[in-house]
Design goal:
By secondary structure, this protein is mainly beta. Helices cover 7% and strands 43% of the residues. It contains one helix and five strands; from the N terminus they run H-E-E-E-E-E.
Length: 115
């Protein structure tokens, strides 16, 4: 058996997550385990890319924290992810929004998509 197909079968994407695209503003709730304690933390930001396919599919979220850009990469199949909520749908014309890294203030805003 092909090892790549085996890994893809083992790491399935959780079906209860909503569909989102680059440009959407989402809130990801994930579990943090510190020693014997466990807590949940929320990371809110804009999706700047969705990468890969199958079990290795990941998405990158970017937010501004005290004037510093913070990016975090989450695998779709990660067991630490507990919830994803789409807060706003963004209207963009690219799949990878790396140009947002160079923009500051109002220029870094993403227009909202009409339904």
């Amino acid at each position: 058996m092909d090892p790549i197909k085996f890994v893809e079968e083992q790491t399935l994407i959780k079906p209860d997550f909503p569909d989102f695209r680059p440009g959407d503003h989402i809130a990801v709730t994930y579990r943090i385990i510190e020693g014997d304690k466990e807590r949940s933390q929320v990371f809110k930001g804009d999706v700047i890319q969705i990468n890969g396919s199958g079990g290795t599919k990941t998405f990158t979220i970017r937010k501004m924290s005290n004037g510093v850009g913070v990016e975090r990469i989450f695998p779709f199949s990660s067991p630490i992810l507990s919830d994803i909520k789409v807060l706003k749908r963004g209207k963009v014309r690219r799949a990878k929004l790396f140009y947002l890294r160079d923009l500051v203030g109002k220029k870094a805003r993403i227009k909202e998509r009409r339904r």
